[in-house]
Amino acid sequence: MVDGVFDEDQAIQAAYLDMTVRAGGRIVHEDGLGMYFGTHPSWIIINGAFRTDPGLAPGDAIRRTERAFRERGRTPLLMTFGRADADLEAALADAGWRAAVELPIMVRSTTLPPGPAVDGAGLDWLAGDDLVELGVLRDVLLRGYGDGMREVVDSVFRTIAAIRPPGVAAAIARLDGAPAAAALVYVEGPGAVVAWVTTVPEARRRGLGRLVTAAVTNRGLGLGAAGVTLQASDMGAPVYRSMGYQDVSMSRGWLAPSREP
Question: Which letter does DSSP use for residue 175 in this model?
Fold first, then answer.
């Protein structure tokens, strides 16, 4: 947030920290560097660092990130946001770090129409106080993202705090009564961040992804956000663009060179 104005990069950073705290992980703010350490060592989503001060020298950000993560037995991952971190990205490339993840950052500042009706579909909002609901959400996420994300999903959604308001809302789409798609929105100051959008394989290409995306986008705006942002996967990006989300930047997750031979 910059003087109360929606800033998509800072909203995304705040959402990572929010997820970490809700999952029982640890966040560290250290002189222009923000770091978050999840309950599992995976570098995917749940462990990382980013500059909170664009004036922090790239070399300092790189050295301090690597030291902090190596000390904790984690793979060093440093996130960059294209418009603010061109100097850091150049330094990371020179230092041999690898851009393992590249995700377009998209924004939307007005509500979305619900879109065409999906036969047999309904939408539920999780109350955030029921372990059964949490189990349903976790099951949809695991089926949607696959076994390769099991440790990450289990780490983020290990307790009911993951979906407890305020600050977060979770939607489940049902198809013929069965949970089939999900999405969450995190409200971070004047911005909101859409995340965890997925559909189980057998229900894809039915419009459920659009249904839950529109729902959480509108919920974020309804909760007072001036804008909604997201990091788009390769699969999701065309859908979000067709819904009216606009590309504004690119985020990257950089992995440190391996110390293994």
Answer: E
> What does residue 41 show for φ and ψ, rounded to 5 degrees?
-75, 0
Contact 212, 183 (CB under 8 A): yes
In a domain, 3, yes or no: no
**126 with 197, same domain?**
yes
Q: Residue 116: its pLDDT value, please? A: 83
| Residue 214 placed within a domain | yes
Q: Which of 200, 206, 106 is nearest to 145 (CA)?
A: 200
Token output for 7 = 């800033």
Whether pTM exceeds 0.90:
yes
Give the up-direction half-sphere exposure of residue 174: CA atoms within 13 A in the CB hemisphere: 10
| 72 burial type by CB count under 10 A (0-12 exposed, 13-18 middle, 19+ buried) | middle
Mean pLDDT of the chain: 95
Number of domains in the chain: 2
Question: Is 108 domain-assigned?
Answer: no
Give start and end residues of each alpha helix (H) in the chain: 8-22, 58-71, 86-94, 131-145, 150-156, 208-222, 237-242
Q: Is 111 exposed, middle or buried (0-12, 13-18, 19+ CB in 10 A)?
A: middle
Give the list of residues 6+ apart from residue 154 with CB closer than 8 angstroms, or none.
40, 138
Evaluate whether 102 touches 250 at the Cβ level (below 8 Å): yes
Is residue 205 assigned to a domain? yes
Please name which of 171, 246, 180 lies closest in space to residue 212, comparing C-alpha atoms. 171
How far apart CA 90 and CA 56 sit, in angstroms, is 14
Residue 235 has pLDDT above 70, yes or no: yes
For residue 49, what are the domain limits? 8-103+250-255
